[in-house]
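Format notes (please read before filing issues)

Several people have asked whether sequences and structure tokens are stored in separate files. They are not. Every record keeps both together, in the order shown below: the sequence lines, then the token lines. Line labels are part of the format and must not be stripped during preprocessing.
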Amino acid sequence: MAPAPPVYHESGDWQTAQPADAQPRGMWWSLYQDPALDTLEGKIVVANQDLKAALARLEQARAQTRIARAGEFPTITAGPAVTRSRTSRNAPDYNPNLPIVHNDWLAEGDLSYEIDLWGRIRNGVRGAHAGEQASAADAATLELALHAELASDYFQLRSLDAQQALLAHTVEAYTRALELTQHLYDGGAAPISDLQQAQAQLEGAKTQAADIRLRRAQMQHGIAVLVGESPSTFALAAQPLAADAAPPPIDPGLPSTLLQRRPDEAAAERRVAQANYGIGVARAAYFPVFSLAAAAGFESLQSSSWFSAPSRLWSIGPSAALTVFDAGLHRAQTAQAKAVYDEQVADYRGVALGAFQDVEDNLVALHELQNESQSEAAAVTATQGALEQANYRYQGGLVTYLEVVTAETAALQAQLSAADIQQRRLGASIALIKALGGGWERPQG
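Then the structure lines:
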């Protein structure tokens, strides 16, 4: 018997993984307690076209496993045939007792079976099954990514709704300020520069509002495609993100084993196994192939005696085939299989390192964005106070309108920045859930 293909052994800080991607991830988006988001997420599995394509690829992989498994069983064929032929009188096998023109009635069944002594077929089946599992993990990876993308896009849309409402309120305030400045100018109490600054400020706010409407429309179109609907008919009513909206609390003791639920890690690990079995297939080519062939049936020159006892025929016997010289073909194929294995091991390690980076990046992001949120909230309060004072001073004739414009611009930017930080916090929590393979609930058992 040929030696078994090599098994990968970890060294140093690397440990053999125990993939847990089969654990249910549940509806992790329900942590955000948003019914509209829950409804949209429910459409991903049944309507997203990219996911349907991934599932079709999974079916191809499953069929490939069945194709490989068929090699473990004998192949039986049946081939009835009726021919009419003329024999040459000068042929070496010419029989003068037979008519020159005659019929040949043949009904024969053939059996062929490869005796898998060296594991070529077994390793092929195992490799195909590992590839099937990798394809299933690929589909799960895509599904997780689509759910995360939808949740992230949804909260970006709601953040744009909040910014749009803020800008709508700002445009109204700037319009009233322009009217006041116009009255002051008409009465000779304000210079033309104040009026021009008020007009410029209003038009700038309108421009920002138009840009927000554009971004919202494009984000809504992207969500429509994710849930498998036409962007031209899909619509989500405006629903500004609540001012106190925050990410769900994180378990402070997240175990690193949660990363083993990531389907992309499972896919990489199973491709390592598939490549390992490929080495076994390549090595089996060095050994002879033993086969068993058999045939049985009936043959006659006349249809009336076709299936009679004298017309019976049969044959059976083993055979062996061994490549004696192939100019290094098998050696090159084995080297290629080993190189593919090394590639998959490196890819797997890269995926594992990337997974830790994803988690660390988003944990840091959540921590720092929380600090930013607190400081920006203080900035919003401060700029609002400065704006009130600037308005009082302007109305009292103590300052020019430039000071009001500066204070209003700072207050608006602080509010927009606060809304952006809020959305980024939610996005970081979604990215963390994706990095952990679908939530931070501890594995059961």
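For reference, the curators noted about this record: The longest strand covers residues 101-115. The domain at 28-73+118-286+328-435 is CATH 1.20.1600.10 (Outer membrane efflux proteins (OEP)).
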